[in-house]
């Protein structure tokens, strides 16, 4: 019913807004596998053909938004499939769903960039220093090096896992990049719909 769709949408919004506070209690990975992924995949064909109902569009847009907020916690294989679903939603007839998909794709991409920056800082802190760095770089490297030394092998293992995760996500991202860019540029012509 329409009421149940609105209640579900409100639940998605609550979890997304407070995700930093509930991520220890909510397994986003399991939730994505059992609810969000099937829902996004099942309703996509009707939205691509323009035969989707408004209530479906509302729920799809919120599920896509939720992927942008929480998707960084997905395992690499599920992250790749989630990114593909997000890119496919850029072609939907519902402009709100399409623009929400663009926003989610940007959020998922930004998470990769954050991980890459952390890896670069780790690499800089663990390699031998040569030359004279500027003061800000020296302070940042010193702080990162102290954190690495305090963490010991656990930090090394965490960064090794992060590096593998980033590489898998970058591979998926480069494979979907032409579709994502095409989806974004095709939306430019449709922006007159909202004016």
From TrEMBL:
Domain of life of the native organism: Eukaryota
Protein name from the UniProt record: Uncharacterized protein
Organism of origin: Chlamydomonas euryale
